[in-house]
Design goal:
The protein is 29% helix and 31% strand. It has 160 residues and is α+β, with helices and mostly antiparallel strands. The structure holds zinc ion. Zinc ion binds next to strand 1 and helix 1.
Length: 160
């Protein structure tokens, strides 16, 4: 495989009352949270898919199938750690990550740096290699109506 590899990932979860809203390892105070088999961390999931995509290793469902009881309510940080090991074993490290979270409410700006810190620690890279942006959907579609959260991630891997 070449010395640089690009990856793209996407994830979406429905939001429901009484669930925790976990984004990039940060519990964001809100009356709704992700509906999921795991903890539903939409940002970690999108990043995992981008990492696996960069080395053409399928997706999160292939490596951590929702049918496997071992992954029920699992902390997605553990899945991101396992994914990093896969990348490492293939001989790569993080160049940089650029991710976008789409959520109508609440505002995420005060939590962004905590998310960047969590991600850079798990992926053994400098915090300046991890960019996270937050957008709304301007009240369009079901995400814009507050019924879902989405995340996109682009990653560049470098041969270590
Ligand atoms: Zn997910």
């Amino acid at each position: 495989m070449s010395n640089i590899r690009i990856g793209h990932g996407y994830d979406i979860h429905r939001l429901a009352e009484g669930k925790k809203l976990i984004i990039g390892g940060v519990i964001v105070p809100y009356n709704k949270g992700e509906v999921a088999h795991s903890d539903g961390d939409v940002l970690y999931h999108a990043i995992i898919d981008s990492l696996l995509g960069a080395i053409a290793e399928g997706d999160i469902g292939k490596h951590f199938p929702p049918s496997d009881e071992a992954y029920k309510n699992i902390d997605s940080a553990l899945l991101l750690e396992k994914t990093f090991k896969i990348i490492q074993n293939k001989g790569y490290l993080i160049g940089n990550i650029d991710a976008t979270v789409i959520l109508e409410k609440p505002k995420l700006s005060s939590h962004i740096d905590s998310m960047r810190k969590n991600i850079s620690a798990i992926l053994h890279t400098d915090i300046n290699n991890v960019s996270i942006k937050a957008k709304t959907k301007e009240n369009c579609d079901s995400t814009g109506e507050g019924n879902a959260i989405e995340a996109f991630s682009s990653v560049l891997l470098l041969r270590s």
